[in-house]
Amino acid sequence: MHRKFDKITTFERRDAITYPAIRRWDQEDPLRHRREDFELPGGIIYLDGNSLGPLPRATRGRIDEVVAKEWGQGLIRSWNEHRWIDAPLRVGDKIAKLIGARSGEVVVADSTSVNLFKLLGAALAARPDRCVVLSEPGNFPTDLYMAEGAIGARSCPLQLRLEPAERILQAIDSNTAVVMLTHVHYKTAAIHDMRAITAKAHEHGALVIWDLSHSVGAIEVDLNGCEADMAVGCGYKYLNGGPGAPAFLFVSQRLQAELTSPLKGWMGHNRPFEFIDNYEPAEGIRRFLCGTPSILGVLSLEVGVDLILRSRMQDIVQKSRWLSELFVDLIADICPSLRLVSPANVHERGSHVSFAHPEGYAIMQALIERGVIGDFRAPDLLRFGFTPLYLRYQDVWDAAYTVADVVHSGCWADPRYAVRAAVT
């Protein structure tokens, strides 16, 4: 039975948080009809859209059309007749609207890791007299691995320097070639101050690369407003592009003529179908393409991006904050043995929250068996994502009480929950 929860939160609501109030908020939600745009299995509360977004209903029909008509009937003609060749730029322009970029500054291509390597290589080549790539310990591992790879590919002395988040601004100096940070931390959801860090880097002549994988489609991003240089981002989280969806990259127009990708693929050539032996970089953002794009992946991603563009970003951001604030406050009240590791201030975190518990993995497995799907991040974090387009306030209420029941009952101690799966 749901009990009354009287804690006053940053919701600025008119009344105490009770179950009837929760149901009313769902009825008043301007995004309530967006839930119908997704194929969500019954009996599931999905709190892992920050890792893999669910299937949009329109994706199935769109891909059926592409496979049966454009590929099946059009064959190779569809590169021209259905403009497959333009898809990476077209979808990139749509993503640009979500991240404060201009048309011609974003392209869909490859994976986040590959795109990051491209931008690191381009940035290091543009700052040949500098020897430091600056990031933070605990950044998403592939970002650090790509930095190590980009540094190893250079013959001149370079180092990857890791500083705690609170020391990043002080660590930027005249030796810094590139600052590489994830805008919203994948574990804690803590948000870096994009404007302040970018400004400090520019003051010292450094370039900045932002990873927007846990930002795009969930929180406000204003790349051009912050005078950002470069960015990468993921297509399968909040953009709902499907497992392994193509990623995207952003390069400011003011830098496009200066920077060249170290991966000189034929799709980034100025004249790809003249089949010239020597590489000539294309004009603009197209020079950061590499190999032939995955058309099925790009067109699936386009469906997810179009779906987000049908709603106002301010409604998405506001509901994201309210959903996560509701969950955090409920857990604090009914399950205090979980320790919040995300910022307590909702304005300082992204659209997911993490809690620490020594038995975090087993607890998450027990939750998943009960239909509340989040994920686990080593060594001890339970991570819950809040995607406003399909989550209801009622879902968050029910999920919080399920978490409390699992933790308090001790059902997670069943030995089968301790067996680690390949993907956590």
Outline the structure in words.
The protein contains 13 helices and 15 strands. It has 424 residues and is α/β, with parallel strands linked by helices. It folds into two domains: 19-57 and 312-418, Aspartate Aminotransferase, domain 1, CATH 3.90.1150; 83-309, Aspartate Aminotransferase, domain 2 (3-Layer(aba) Sandwich). The strands form four sheets. It has a seven-stranded mixed sheet with strand order 4-10-9-8-7-5-6, sandwiched between helices. Helix 6 links the parallel strand 5 (132-135) and strand 6.
How would you describe this structure in keywords?
35% helix; Aspartate Aminotransferase, domain 2; PyrdxlP-dep_Trfase_small; alpha/beta; seven-stranded mixed beta sheet; hydrolase; kynureninase activity; 424 residues; four-stranded antiparallel beta sheet; globular; Aspartate Aminotransferase, domain 1
Fold blueprint:
Elements: H1 19-28, E1 38-39, E2 45-46, E3 55-56, H2 57-71, H3 78-81, H4 87-96, E4 106-108, H5 112-126, E5 132-135, H6 141-152, E6 159-162, H7 168-171, E7 176-182, H8 194-203, E8 207-211, E9 230-233, E10 248-251, H9 253-256, H10 295-309, H11 313-334, E11 339-340, E12 352-356, H12 360-369, E13 372-373, E14 375-377, E15 381-385, H13 393-409
Parallel strand pairs: 2-13, 5-6, 5-7, 7-8, 8-9
Antiparallel strand pairs: 1-3, 4-10, 9-10, 11-12, 12-15, 14-15
Helix pairs in contact: 2-10, 4-10, 5-6, 11-13
Subunit structure: Homodimer.
Pfam family, one: DegT_DnrJ_EryC1
Enzyme class: hydrolase
